[in-house]
Amino acid sequence: MPACPSTPNIRSRARAIPVLGILLLGMLWGAPVGAQDAARIVGRAGQVYRNLSSLRAQFTQTISDRMIGDFDSKGTLIQAGNNHLAMIFSDPEGDRITLDGTHAWIYTPSSAPGQVIRVAIPSDPVYGLNVVAWILDRPTERYRSTFLRVESVAGRPADVVAMAPLSASLPFTAVTVWLDQGDGLPRRIELQETSGAKRTLVLSGIQTNTAVPRSTFRFTPPNGVRIINQ
Fold first, then answer.
1. pTM score > 0.85 for this model?
2. Is there a contact between 67 and 84 (Cβ–Cβ < 8 Å)?
3. In this structure, what is the dihedral angle of CA atoms 166, 181, 199, 79, given to the nearest 10 degrees?
4. How many CB atoms lie within 10 A of CB 212?
């Protein structure tokens, strides 16, 4: 007859079972998310973006350049489709970037008074000036994505994903984006630009699918301002 296990051994094994369960759960929670899951995350964000009729948000932007230092700005971002966008700056007050569907108007009297730059919008909007469209227009086709971590942004959990562009035509070499786990929209975007500068864009107070007057995307140069076509 086999010997019965002693009471201390039974208790030790009983204590070990929940500990082992906790260790296994910890291994599962801490397991890296695969490329397929990263693609699913950005694919969902792209689908949410494509289904929007409009997006409005407050933004803060920092451009860091080792030659000229940091340049901070803030304001309101409004878009309705890839080719209609307005970045209305409250700091520096009076600066504005407008995409009217045909041209991009870059008016920055804080740094270039007396002029506005007008640029024809490329046929592929992702190569235009709409940073959000750069990231979320067909992201699974344009990027190789890698999941990094989950991180809170303004109290909301977000999936942090690194996105490597598959085309050398884009004006940046690397992107890290914080995608809200609730609505799938970006809360923070970090771009490493080909110029060597780093751009950080943080969005807050996001509103979607609200009515936006078409006049929002019209730009009329002030009197005396010279138009420079590029």
1. no
2. no
3. 90
4. 17
- Asked if residue 84 belongs to a domain, the reply is yes
The per-residue pLDDT for 88 is: 97
Q: In whole angstroms, what is the distance from residue 8 CA to residue 14 CA?
A: 10
For residue 195, tell me if it sits in a domain.
yes
Structure token digits, residue 100: 């009217």
Total domain count, the chain: 1
Q: CA-CA distance, 40 to 57, in Å (whole number)?
A: 25
CATH number, domain with residue 83: 2.50.20.10
Query: Residue 135's CB: how many other CB atoms inside 10 A?
Result: 25
Digit-by-digit pLDDT tens for the chain (230 residues) are: 444 444 444 344 334 333 333 333 333 333 344 555 899 999 999 999 999 999 999 999 999 988 888 999 999 999 998 789 999 999 999 999 999 999 999 999 999 999 999 998 876 555 557 888 888 988 999 999 999 999 999 899 999 999 999 988 788 899 999 999 999 999 999 999 988 999 999 999 999 999 999 999 999 999 999 999 98
Q: What is the dihedral of CA 79, 80, 82, 85, to 10 degrees?
A: -30
Write out pLDDT tens, residues 96-110.
999 999 999 999 999
Burial of residue 33 (number of CB atoms within 10 Å: 0-12, 13-18, 19+): middle
- Mark residue 79 as left, alpha or beta (left: phi above 0; alpha: psi -120 to 50; beta: remaining): beta
